[in-house]
């Protein structure tokens, strides 16, 4: 739900704390790529090592 709000409001930057922990790595990559395409700078806090 947090990413839906993020993509709706399209801020210049956002801080994401474990915002992708419940999705697969593929979906996570798509979310980050979408943010990049929309010009949203992300600061991400995650325990997932693949980032």
Summarize the structure.
This protein is an alpha+beta fold and 51 residues long. The protein has helices at residues 2-9, 25-37, and strands at residues 13-17, 41-45.
Give the helices and strands, then pairings.
Elements: H1 2-9, E1 13-17, H2 25-37, E2 41-45
Parallel strand pairs: 1-2
Descriptive report:
This protein is α+β, with helices and mostly antiparallel strands and 51 residues long. The chain has one domain. Helices cover 41% and strands 20% of the residues. The chain has two helices and two strands; from the N terminus they run αβαβ. It has a two-stranded parallel ribbon with strand order 1-2. The longest helix is centred in the middle third of the chain and has 13 residues. The chain is globular. The mean pLDDT is 92.
Salient structural properties:
51 residues, alpha+beta, two-stranded parallel ribbon, 2 helices, 2 strands, globular
Using the CA coordinates, give the radius of gyration. Answer: 10 Å
Low-pLDDT segments: none
Task: Give me the number of helical elements.
Answer: 2
What's the multimeric state? single chain
Number of strands: 2
